[in-house]
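The instructor's notes for this session suggest beginning with a concrete chain rather than abstract definitions. Hand out the sequence below and ask the class to guess, before any prediction is shown, which regions might be ordered.
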Amino acid sequence: MENKMSSVAELKERHMAATETVNALGDKLKQKRLLLLDTDVAGYARSQGKTPVTFGPTDLVCCRTLQGHTGKVAL
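After discussion, reveal the predicted structure:
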């Protein structure tokens, strides 16, 4: 019985350590995503010798179609 108790305690400790590791990795991933969202894409493109793509207020249209849609578009 003593071996089972120590192995259960050991498993609990390992589980807690693994949970902490996973949570820390999740936090790092969240920080990386936020950094990517804050990236100055135009500045990065210029630093790479590229011309950044720019869109005016009406140059980009996003459209979604549904099965059975009539094809009419309301603006």
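Then share the key points. Helices lie at 2-37, 41-47. The longest helix spans residues 2-37.
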